[in-house]
Design goal:
mainly alpha
């Protein structure tokens, strides 16, 4: 008699393995310093370096209130992750620019993420990955 497998339990076990594996690497301390939405903002700014990004863009993209974003950005500025720089075309606007410290953290994070992704995708065909992501999306929609 075979034991029934439960999707939730298997996802939970996989999540535990990922967390355990990810938390044992050299990036852990840096990532913990830029916790929560800060790391998402750093990633967004890094991926949009060639554009002028302002506080109002962060509010809109992440669906966060102005006062919350203002406090987050002040803290990120204090920690040395961002600078606010004026733009030539509007003296009222200050674009958000990552510091070298934040870019170094982002690059290290992406390097580690890519290494982990290679491990996760080992021995899995493109077709199997496509099926996996399709099923995962269906599970996510079922939960919603």
């Amino acid at each position: 008699m075979s034991a029934q497998k439960y999707i939730g339990m298997e996802i939970g076990k996989t999540n535990n393995l990922l967390k355990r594996n990810f938390s044992s690497n050299k990036v852990k301390q840096q990532i913990e310093e830029a916790t929560g939405k800060n790391s998402w903002i750093i990633a967004f700014l890094a991926e949009h370096q060639d554009e002028d990004v302002f506080q109002k863009d962060i509010e809109r993209i992440f669906s966060i209130r102005r006062s919350t974003v203002s406090n987050m950005l002040k803290l990120m500025e204090k920690k040395g992750y961002i600078n606010r720089e004026p733009v030539e075309y509007d003296a009222r606007l200050k674009r958000l620019v990552l510091t070298k410290q934040a870019m170094d953290m982002y690059n290290l994070l992406m390097e580690q993420l890519n290494e982990k992704e290679l491990i996760l995708r080992k021995n899995i065909s493109d077709e199997e990955l496509e099926t996996f992501f399709s099923i995962l999306l269906k599970i996510q929609n079922n939960i919603k």
